[in-house]
Write a structure and sequence with these properties.
Layout (H helix, E strand, L loop, with lengths): L2 H16 L6 H13 L5 H9 L6 H13 L3 H14 L1 E3 L2 E3 L14 H15 L4 H12 L9 H18 L6
Antiparallel strand pairs: 1-2
Helix pairs in contact: 1-2, 2-4, 3-4, 4-5, 4-6, 5-6, 6-7, 6-8
């Protein structure tokens, strides 16, 4: 990405986060996640969102946990992962997150994408948790041919699976 484009993106996201009228907690969580993925950390925004975790859906908790982890705030990130673990829907050796959003039709209401981000947070912060295996199984059961439901959830799942094989060392055969 050209530096000028990156700078404009960061300015846009930071401007949105600074906007006092921006009360969409789900959107704010994704904004701090997007910035953190690029190495820009809004520590105050992340801490405020983490304190308000009871008003966040599972999608927002997952991406916020990832952002906090990138920023080295693992205690807060683990707290969110524990909250995610307690809200997992478990059935027949599989687990997923139902994407409990606070608003109908929210763009974060896709259970496949929510599960992918929750799984990624678990892999990074609690990799030995049995939910990792169970969520992988659930996501695999939802695949339709070479994709999932949407391009957006397919991308989230593929990124999470790629991260999983990297973290577990499955890319290094015996």
């Amino acid at each position: 990405v050209p530096q000028e484009t990156w700078d404009k993106l960061v300015a846009f996201l930071e401007g949105s986060l600074d906007d006092l009228n921006n009360t969409d907690l789900e959107g704010r969580a994704y904004q701090v996640f997007a910035l953190a993925e690029g190495g820009v950390f809004r520590s105050t925004d992340m801490a405020n969102l983490a304190r308000d975790k009871d008003n966040l859906g599972d999608y927002a908790k997952a991406v916020l946990a990832l952002a906090l982890h990138r920023a080295g705030r693992d205690s807060m990130a683990r707290d969110l992962v524990a909250s995610l673990a307690s809200s997992a829907v478990r059935l027949n050796g599989r687990a997923h997150w139902a994407s409990n959003t606070l608003r109908y039709g929210n763009w974060t209401s896709n259970p496949i994408e929510t599960t992918a981000y929750a799984l990624r947070a678990l892999i990074e912060l609690d990799g030995q948790n049995p939910l990792v295996r169970d969520a992988m199984s659930w996501l695999l059961s939802r695949r339709r041919g070479n994709r999932w439901t949407t391009t957006k959830d397919t991308a989230a799942v593929v990124m999470t699976f790629s991260h999983y094989v990297k973290v577990t060392g499955e890319l290094n055969p015996d």
